[in-house]
Amino acid sequence: MTLAPFACQPDASRGRLFPEKLSTFRSPFQRDRDRILHTKAFRRLKHKTQVFVEHEGDYYRTRLTHTIEVAQVARTIAGTLGLNVELAEAVALAHDLGHPPFGHTGEDALAELMQPYGGFDHNAQAIRIVTDLERMADHAAGNARIVIDIAGEPLLKPLVDIPRMAAIAREMLNDSITAYIEQDAQAARACAERDDEVDALYNQIYRELLTYMMADPGTINRATHLLWVAHNLERIGDRATNICERVVFAETGELTEINVSTY
């Protein structure tokens, strides 16, 4: 189908945040649509309703049936106007994934209660989650670049605490995402508490490397690289904690900083 001049042209888009090989059979927007259909968040829409509890009867719309209807309307409108039908359908299928319980009324209530703290918007909440994940990827990429830069150089010291930091940060990332997917506030709190371990290790590494640099200025370059590695791991722990705090907020309405980093 020929798209209208004002439609989103796939070849002229801003591209992927994370580059991937093009599919032989599907356009990027088709892949987005299909990925949404296979997510847990999409399947869970079947138990959510706008007003009534879904098991009270089979006449009530659930979020899932509503989303299917919205996608149908979106396809029709996009086709009539010459817009990108696949993109419109993907947006329609995803439009309700971040809603809290009790439909728009639940979101309105949360927005009113959280007004002193900046309000609540389910779209903004989802964007914050994605933003933290993106920043963690940046920290990981930073460490990868350091490894490339120092390849072949002798280590300043045997690595003991940095591997421990990496292991905890990796577990925190996994646990925070699991808590988010399962909307488990208790698991989110338990995950965030581990950030204290990461901070303690970072503080220990900082003091130790500072001692090396003060004793021998010739070690400054290698010590600085290790400090940056530790810093990036510490920030990954903080980002995982941010995700955990938002899980707790979404589930309980409590906007609290579980662990406040001093770095």
Concise structural overview:
This protein is mainly α and 263 residues long.
Give me the secondary-structure topology:
Elements: H1 28-37, H2 40-43, H3 63-81, H4 85-94, H5 103-113, H6 122-149, H7 161-182, H8 185-193, H9 195-215, H10 220-252
Q: Could you give a short account of the major beta sheet?
A: none
Strand residue content: under 5%
Low-confidence stretches: none
Question: Radius of gyration in whole Å, from Cα?
Answer: 23 Å
Q: Per CATH, what is the topology of the largest domain?
A: Methane Monooxygenase Hydroxylase, Chain G, domain 1
Number of strands: 0
Name of the CATH class of the largest domain: Mainly Alpha
Helical/strand content category: mainly alpha
Please state the overall shape, judged from the principal axes of the Cα atoms. globular
CATH evolutionary superfamily of the largest domain: Phosphate transport system protein phou homolog 2, domain 2
Q: Helicity, in percent?
A: 55-70%
**Second CATH tier, the architecture of the largest domain:** Up-down Bundle
How would you name the oligomeric state of the polypeptide chains in this document? single chain
> Span from first to last CA?
54 Å
User: If you average the pLDDT, what whole number results?
Assistant: 84
Q: How many domains make up the coordinates? A: 2
Helix and strand sequence: HHHHHHHHHH
What is the number of helices?
10
